[in-house]
Amino acid sequence: GPSSQEILEKRKQFLNPAIFLYYKKPINIVEGKMQYLYDETGRRYLDAFGGIVTVSCGHCHPEIVDAIVHQTKILQHTTTIYLHHAVADYAEALASKMPGNLKVVYLVNSGSEANDMALMMARLYTGSFDIVALRNAYHGLSAATMGAAGLHTWKHGVAQGFGVHHALNPNPYRGVHGSDGKLYAEDVADLISSATPGKVAGFIAETIQGAGGAVELAPGYLPAVYEHVRNAGGVCIADEVQTGFGRTGSHYWGFETQGVIPDIVTMAKGIGNGLPLAAVVTTPEIASTLTKCLHFNTFGGNPVCSAGGHAVIKVIDKERRQENCAVVGGHLLERLRQLQEKHPIIGDVRGKGLMIGVELVTDRGTKVPAKAETAEVLEKMKDLGVLAGKGGLHGNVFRIKPPMCFTKQDADYLVDVLDYSLAML
Ligand code: PMP
């Protein structure tokens, strides 16, 4: 294949320069096998970011590849205007994974589309317009979801979210109320009574914020907020784009870690192990409001993505991936906390299962974000063969969200590489 330099030159000429690369010295990935990626020289990297939390079962997982190839050879696309079994079979399988009355599936292609649709459903169903979202949230880059973002870095001043109100971020590490979920929930009640007519369309939140830096919501937050929102006539939307499909280890869905059942659940990324697939799952009652509108999605629920998504669900069950997230994630968190004792720059280690954040600060007291250091360590880790992510408003949080086939040995290797890279600062 072409060299990195040739690809870089072609990109420069033909690709929008806004499509950014992660590393100062970019890597050229030509092949993937489960939790490993290979560059053009055959060098192997341990992938602890999974294509931004998307490769859930592993790169080119053979059973998922087989399902995709098989379906592609028979029928790739017709749109949903004709009957096809793959979309119906897949919807049944996905619904079987949902608690309560969350049984109606609408398939789309990306997390942005899914959240966009969820916000629209909430507004159509309730007849209200106001939405409560969280500061530090990320829900996508459609006009409506950019408006719901609570990170100015993703808003660009062009889609400011008319009708969206941003509540306090219930962040145990940096938030004003520490770990007291109930106090943060009071802020939502206050927001509803002061900034809306007392009626809202809904509330949207990730259970562990992803792009915002793997921030867990303070315990007890969601149950209290859901009550306030429902009392104001609103529906509760859980953005499971990153936290779904067993990644948190203890539960299949992130919202279950706070003991709530939402009214609308959005999912993307890991749902397709890399295929463009996303879904909105809701109750029959809420789903039916959409029948009043002419609504359509050209690629949503196409046979190939449906077959691939179905295979993902089967693989997660068969290979006990949720359990693996609990075991390996627990081990990784423990080892990272030991590392925190050694390196004062590590301000916080947090997360659940294989959805982990490591926040770097220049001073543990003032918590000043160590932004430059994070970028430097990320680059160093890559040079040593480990790919992690970074995020948070200040770009000072390592995001460790590998394919869910990550092993304890992989975790140990990652920690050793992080340890060494931090020592080199
Ligand atoms: N919600 C969350 C929590 C996300 O992390 C993302 C993607 N980073 C999105 C929504 C948007 O998904 P997509 O990029 O597929 O539109």
UniProtKB/TrEMBL annotation:
It holds the Pfam family Aminotran_3. Transmembrane segments: none annotated. Its cofactor is pyridoxal 5'-phosphate. GO terms for molecular function: alanine-glyoxylate transaminase activity; pyridoxal phosphate binding. The keyword Chaperone does not apply. PROSITE patterns: AA_TRANSFER_CLASS_3 (PS00600). GO terms for cellular component: mitochondrion. It catalyses: glyoxylate + L-alanine = glycine + pyruvate. It comes from the Eukaryota. One of its GO terms (biological process) is glyoxylate catabolic process. It is an enzyme of class 2 (transferase). Signal peptide: none annotated. PANTHER family: ALANINE--GLYOXYLATE AMINOTRANSFERASE 2, MITOCHONDRIAL, PTHR45688. This is alanine--glyoxylate transaminase.
